[in-house]
Design a protein that fits this description.
The structure is a homodimer of 232-residue chains. By secondary structure, chain A is of the alpha+beta class. Chain A has two domains: 96 residues, Protein Yojf, Chain: A, CATH 2.70.180.20; 113 residues, 3-Layer(aba) Sandwich (Trna Endonuclease, Chain: A, domain 1). Chain A has six helices and 13 strands. In chain A, strands 4-3-2-1-7-6-5 form a seven-stranded antiparallel sheet, with no helix packed on it. A five-stranded mixed sheet of chain A has the order 9-10-11-12-13, with helices on both faces. In chain A, strand 11, helix 4 and strand 12 form a beta-alpha-beta unit. In chain A, helix 4 packs parallel to helix 5. Chain A starts with a strand and ends in an 8-residue tail after the last helix. Strand 2 of chain A pairs antiparallel with strand 8 of chain B. Chain A binds a DNA duplex (15 and 15 nucleotides) through strand 4.
DNA sequence: AATTCGATGTCGCTC
DNA sequence: GAGCGACGTCGAATT
């Protein structure tokens, strides 16, 4: 990785055209040729960038660029789309190269699949005694519903699990229910919307459609979970 | 901005839990306290990060951490959500601080909205005499179509404008046409797909559906445009 | 404050 | 490779 701090101006041409006026910025060139240009603020998104696969070439400034006090010009081209990033360097303030090696990568925990697995393992702990799991990823013609369960009264319940419960999740569950009810054995199936957080609009819509809402406590579920039987 | 290269391991706890095993990475601390951790690959997205507003504090490693060869520990806390990022530094390889000043920011040009405005202003210049604009952003139940126009024969034409014409743009226009044709006054409406560049697949699909394709010349349209009447 | 919508979205999976 | 959905989506414009 090459890490530079430079006074530069930048032009991008690709899905749109954009330019960055002259200022001091951090320019990061990764081993795969990709380039990131960061200012000292904003979020994790660079002001400008080029995604791999791409190639960086350096050239001398032309007459106009010299007149504009440009010392070096980097041109980064996207191999597939032809997008181009031109970095005009007015002054290189610092430049270093490091060998970072291959990163072992991020390990995630607590995503929807994990919530689904935890709830499947802790149905009685979360919903109460008498609940039984039929299966995870129960198939329907429009995709699998997260969990199919049976409540203490013996009624089937389709459970949609989300990390954040929003309206589109309720719509998704509604589609599943509509199709599942065509199966005579599931004609009386009910719906349950389970999420770590349920938005007010989603709750309103769900309850209007007779879908129960359950807020999941991830840490509590992890406590209930039997570590020997879990999937992750 | 503080730019460090360090052998580190990282834990994140917030919307999800995640961790990064020990490896050499770039750690960027911006003036607002936000932190980015980059490996030497991937795209512009960091492996891990903390968005502002947040505060970074450094502490000495505890007994377990010392046993794990940790030299320094940075803890970054999100002020509002309480999300936490813990960076355990095994070895600081390089550390520098720069004053970048306030960035003037990215200036965008040539986005779809601008193309749409230019085409609306130059309909006859681009498509030929006799074309008339009905309106921009003509509403349909699935969103507004960019332009509704009338061709020299008096037939309505729905025009979808893109910088890069790809298949999803043709699908979008097809949905608009389907709904617009339900209006008896627009039963004979035709479609036109206008873009600076039209991908072969998109052109094939469009023409198969009877949708005309027009390649827009941005510079020429800017030349035709009356600067006094334009929207930008 | 809440919501909707666009993004140079990116990323990861299925087909 | 294309299509589809989730994302620690982020961010701006709008209600």
């Amino acid at each position: 990785m090459r890490v530079c701090v430079a006074e530069c101006s930048v032009e991008y041409s690709g899905r749109l055209d954009a330019h960055l006026p002259r200022a001091i910025r951090l320019v990061m060139v990764k081993a795969d040729g990709s380039v990131l240009i960061h200012a000292d603020g904003g979020s994790y998104k660079p002001l400008n960038w080029m995604a791999p696969p791409c190639t960086l070439s350096e050239r001398a400034p032309d007459e106009d660029e010299v007149a504009g006090e440009v010392e070096r010009v980097w041109e980064v081209r996207q191999t597939k789309t032809g997008d181009m990033l031109r970095i005009s360097i007015h002054e290189m303030i610092s430049e270093s190269t490091y060998d970072l090696g291959v990163d072992p990568g991020l390990v995630k925990d607590g995503v929807e699949k994990h919530l689904q697995a935890l709830l499947a393992d802790s149905l009685e702990g979360v919903l109460g005694m008498g609940w039984r799991l039929v299966r995870r990823e129960y198939p329907t013609p429009v995709g699998p519903v997260d969990l199919l369960a049976i409540d203490p009264e013996g009624i089937h319940v389709a459970i949609e699990v989300k990390r954040r419960g929003e309206i589109d999740g309720v719509e998704q569950l509604t589609r599943y229910l509509e199709l599942l009810r065509r199966d005579p054995r599931l004609a009386d199936i009910r719906g349950m919307f389970a999420a770590q957080e349920i938005k007010p609009q989603a709750r309103t819509l769900a309850e209007d459609r007779g879908i129960a809402c359950v807020v999941l406590d991830y840490d509590a579920m992890r406590g209930m979970d039997d570590p020997d039987s879990r999937l992750f």
